[in-house]
DNA sequence: TTATAAAATGTTACCAATAACACAAAAATA
DNA sequence: TATTTTTGTGTTATTGGTAACATTTTATAA
């Protein structure tokens, strides 16, 4: 490995001078700069980040801690995050918590040890508070995306669950539905709570009496919708829903799969709508009506806020960025 | 930040003893080990990776350098890679080259500087040789996935383009197609070359005279299929293809979009098949007939080979892992 | 009981880069 | 020309951890 010492020797200057050339810091005569730069090129010198991190206490590495990169929502988040990080001269570490608190906790320790400068995180749930406290204790800045955590005041980039829910439900109501089921995510995740709250509020506003029997909480990523769907289908005609509002893309897809297995046609017998597009490549075979969140921007903005914190340019008060969803109406909710 | 010196002082031992406890190396009496471990917990000590990297010359960070995480193929690769890396105690850096040689080159420099222990890479093309040489010069082990590079002898995890192509084409031929167009990726990417070679070979074996007019090379990820599709469609009836073999998922989707714009129905007027599933969530609205490659395993195996190299446990000769595709026949190629 | 081996712990130097300070040479000012 | 300021460059110490060697303590054998 080529070090500044090798350069220094060959250029007949001190290592410090080389360091100054590399970092463009301090005063350097044009002559020495050129001489040193020439040798740097010649020997193919690349600075050693470990040594730099050790003295500077910054690694230029950020971490993206999400639940699962294979969820297209987070795929796009990751892409946005990586683009912004690259643009700002940072590298990005990828971690998948799978919505598991322990995995998240393991990663947090690993990340601290790795010396990341900051963490962009979609927390597994409210219990992530413990892991965030660990970050705080270690003075590692973080920004939350998609989900908030009770009792943690920090920079946020989140969607607008209320308006997304509202537009989806109003669309269903306009289509003539009044018995609308909610298959929600876990109650310990803020987005699920917000969507549920919005669900009841909007039904009330529309003069529709909500029925607790029609709502349920399941995982955002494990496939356990089947039982719930079966239950809904086996309700007596008078109570059986004609539409399902799935809290995310994954639930929606599994719901549709279950419905098909049960010979319930979508949308003819059952409309389905959800949050977040399951299709990473836009506009191919579009089927699901949904509230598309600007996932790329979640990542992009998140990294932007994070770097502001890392570099200490952020405002004193925490920033809350709320990105509105876009409602896309497609076949899964259209009465033929 | 808590260091081994803090622990040492509080435990009344030398820093070296603490280091030994942390790393479970050397001989330590049970008594001291317990004493030190207690204080480590108490002070919440987490080792500083920068310092460790500096002495040990290894960072426990690997890099995944792919073309685009939003391509579902690479999304799954990334997930497999991250899972294996985590399991082996490594962290994973994510980089998207967008099939651009310069971006790839920038990343390679960044990665070397970051001190990654190894790189798992889907090279942008044959010209990536230059970037790989940089890695070699810096003694950074790497493994290539999905694509080979002429003139670089290294560990590989690749698919089987020949058999995938063969099965797809035989399926089309069995469906009665004889005028089959190939919309291929760039000729400087090994997978494209292999698929083209297989295409001609298999047509020949089937006694079908191949027509150069029916083959073309476009980007694997930019949407520039439209002109090509238009040309194919405007061929005289006698020459116009009845099926299109798209070299990857992205091309296939854009091809179908173009066909729809041109009012050509798929599969009624035109069958379409391709490599790689564009759908990250399995079995939802499946439409495309394709050769599905075990993307997750590309990443998983790739990291496994890479870590073998990094840790010096690998065999002397380079390893070539070839993962066969699975043909999935769906609607896009079925004559109704 | 002493010599010797083994086990446990400590000391020193080093990894690559940089901050902080020191100092010489050149330029500006008196 | 002498003095001050500025500019350019060098020296030393530090960052957190560990390898290599040194030393002390304990256990074992003679």
From TrEMBL, chains A, B:
Entry-linked InterPro entries: HTH_LacI (IPR000843), LacI/GalR-like_sensor (IPR046335), Lambda_DNA-bd_dom_sf (IPR010982), Peripla_BP_I (IPR028082)
SUPFAM superfamilies in the record: lambda repressor-like DNA-binding domains, Periplasmic binding protein-like I
Alphabetically ordered keywords of this record: DNA-binding, Repressor, Transcription, Transcription regulation
UniProt keyword Protease present: no
Ranges in a coiled coil: none
Keyword DNA repair: no
Top-level lineage group: Bacteria
Annotated HTH lacI-type domain residues: 2-56
PANTHER family cross-referenced by the UniProt entry: HTH-TYPE TRANSCRIPTIONAL REPRESSOR PURR-RELATED, LACI-RELATED TRANSCRIPTIONAL REPRESSOR
Name of the protein in its database record: LacI family transcriptional regulator
Species whose genome carries this gene: Neobacillus kokaensis
């Amino acid at each position: 490995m080529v070090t500044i010492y090798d350069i220094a020797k060959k250029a007949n200057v001190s290592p410090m001078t080389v360091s100054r050339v590399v970092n463009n810091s301090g005063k350097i005569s044009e002559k020495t700069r050129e001489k040193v730069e020439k040798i740097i090129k010649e020997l193919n010198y690349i600075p050693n980040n470990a040594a730099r991190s050790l003295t500077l206490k910054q690694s230029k590495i950020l971490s993206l801690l999400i639940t699962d990169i294979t969820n297209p929502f987070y795929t796009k988040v990751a892409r946005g995050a990586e683009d912004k990080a690259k643009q700002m001269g940072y590298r990005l570490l990828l971690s998948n918590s799978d919505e598991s608190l322990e995995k998240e906790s393991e990663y947090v320790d690993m990340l601290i040890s790795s010396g990341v400068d900051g963490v962009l995180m979609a927390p597994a749930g409210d219990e992530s508070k413990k892991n965030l406290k660990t970050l705080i204790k270690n003075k590692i800045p973080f920004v939350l995306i998609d989900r908030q955590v009770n009792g943690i005041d920090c920079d946020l980039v989140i969607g607008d669950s209320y308006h997304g829910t509202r537009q989806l439900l109003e669309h269903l109501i306009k289509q003539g539905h009044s018995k609308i089921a909610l298959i929600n995510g876990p109650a310990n995740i803020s987005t699920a709570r917000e969507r549920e709250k919005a669900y009841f509020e909007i039904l009330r506003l529309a003069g529709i009496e909500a029925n607790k029997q029609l709502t349920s909480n399941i995982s955002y990523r494990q496939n356990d919708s089947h039982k719930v769907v079966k239950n809904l289908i086996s309700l007596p005609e008078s109570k059986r829903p004609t539409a399902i509002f799935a809290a995310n893309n994954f639930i929606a897809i599994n719901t549709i799969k279950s419905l098909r297995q049960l010979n319930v046609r979508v949308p003819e017998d059952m409309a389905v709508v959800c949050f977040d597009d399951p299709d990473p490549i836009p506009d191919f075979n579009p089927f699901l009506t949904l509230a598309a969140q600007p996932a790329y921007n979640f990542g992009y903005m998140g990294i932007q806020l994070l770097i502001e914190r890392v570099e200490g340019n952020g405002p004193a008060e925490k920033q809350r960025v709320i990105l509105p969803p876009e409602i896309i109406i497609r076949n899964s909710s259209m009465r033929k």
